Amino acid sequence: MEASRKWLVPVVAIVVAAVLIIVAVAYLLLKEDESEGSTVVIDGSELATSGLVDHGTGTFSDPYVINGLDITVQDVETYSTINGIVVNEVSAHLVISGTTIHGEDPTPSGQRKLGIWVLDSSNVTILDCMFLDLSDGICLDNSRDIFIAYNTFHNCSNGVGFSDDEDSRCSNVSINGNNINSVLYGVSCSRGCSPLSIDGNVFAHGTHAFNIARSEGVSVTNNSASDISSYVFSVSLSDDVLVAGNTVTNSFLTGIALSDVSFAEVTDNLIEYGNGISLSYCDHVVISENVVGHVTGISVRDSTSIEVTRNNVSESSTGLLVADSRFVNITYCRIWGCYVGIQLLASENGATIVLVHHNDIASNDIQALDNSDSNNTWDDGAGEGNYWNDYEGVDGDSDGIGDTPLVIDEDSADRYPLMASPV
Ligand SMILES: [Ca+2]
Ligand SMILES: [Ca+2]
Which residues of 302-337 are buried (b: 16+ CB within 10 A; e: fewer)? Predict the structure, then answer.
């Protein structure tokens, strides 16, 4: 009896071990099947009981918090898109924080690795996370009320991407205070997000800081970008756009490019080098209080109703270029040390109706060019023009206005050159 019991112990152990292995394998297979290529699935209907929530009740004041995950997005060859985390149909208030998601460098061809895919969800905050070596750090798909703050993105195609799906629309997204480096696009939104706020982010060593299209209510404020190799801030096909308080350094193409944008304000930006600010096919835009220089300072093409005021443009090939545009006012700008100061250009069928007055135009190799017959006016229509530091006339009656016009060419002149700078 004693001997047969001893003999049973290893047999029972082997059977138990075998059962455990079978259960574990079945669990893993089942889990992989459920996740459809995602490492962690956060489904709205099962969020509270998922075991992922650290604390919280899912309300605005006490959101569900998922904290401190460390995820490597695994290769699953049968799937073309693989997610670290998918947030699906979540509407309860949710915070994902302190989580690191790694991809692979380079991403294997034919695969798309997303750090967090937010799908058909709202009230999601992604805070203080790290996204490394991914296709998209975060991909937003048909979601709203999303707050993305204080995260780090490194070596991704898109830091924050938005789905390209034709039916995907996002709204009320804020991207604030993130550190985004070595990415193709810091933020990429081609299908539209209204409104969208991008504030206080640091972009470095990328191809583009962001590219936003088809959006209404875009606010781009207080960001800094350095060592960006192509267009830095680009907004197109959008309405109601504010670009303010941004800094671009050591980037050699266009700093701020607006194309097909209506009702915009570009103000108080500092752009060293490159084509500072470029507008094409825009209307109702104010460009004010910017400091730009070194290739083309500010260019306005094929646009209508544009105010260019109180900008400081220096040491550019062309300081300020206005081409084929109508109803443009250039006032109170300082344009100095450029090859061409102000150039007004009209192609064969393009009317250029520009008012230029109260500017300080100084020490440019060619102070002004105007090929548009007499469609433009180099004064305010009320007896005051611009200050030109090379004006050689005199002010005999001491009214502050030169007594002879400053001649630009045979059909263009400043009739009332100012004797002192108005800015
Ligand atoms: Ca002319
Ligand atoms: Ca006078």
Answer: bbbbbbbbbbbbbbbebbbbbbbbbbbbbbbbbbbb
Residues in CB range of 119: below 8 A, 6 or more apart: 86, 87, 88, 89, 141, 142, 143
Instruction: Tell me which residue range forms the domain holding 159.
Output: 2-414
Whether residue 419 lies inside any domain: the answer is: no
Q: Report the pLDDT value the prediction gives residue 48, as an integer from 0 to 100.
A: 86
Residue in this structure with the two tokens 């707050």, named with its chain if needed: 147
Spell out which residues have Cβ within 5 A of ligand 2, the ion.
Answer: 395, 397, 399, 401, 403
Q: Which two tokens stand for residue 372?
A: 């548009």
| pLDDT exceeds cutoff 50 at 79 | yes
Cα dihedral 304, 309, 311, 317 sign: positive
CA of 413 to the centre of ligand 1 (A): 8
- Report CA(166)–ligand 2 centroid distance (Å): 63
Query: In this structure, which ligand is nearest to the CA of 375?
Result: 1
Distances (CA, A) of 418 to 66, 338, 391, 395, 399: 65, 20, 9, 9, 9
Residue 421 belongs to some domain of the structure: no
Give the pLDDT confidence score for residue 129 in this predicted structure. 98
Query: Which CATH number characterizes residue 266's domain?
Result: 2.160.20
- The answer as to whether 204 is a domain residue is yes
Q: Based on the number of CB atoms within 10 Å of its own CB, is 143 exposed (0-12), middle (13-18) or buried (19 or more)?
A: buried
Six token digits for residue 176: 């604030």
Average pLDDT of 245-264?
94
Q: Would you say 248 and 227 are in contact if contact means Cβ atoms under 8 Å apart?
A: no
Q: How many domains does the chain have?
A: 1
Residue 423 domain-assigned (yes or no): no
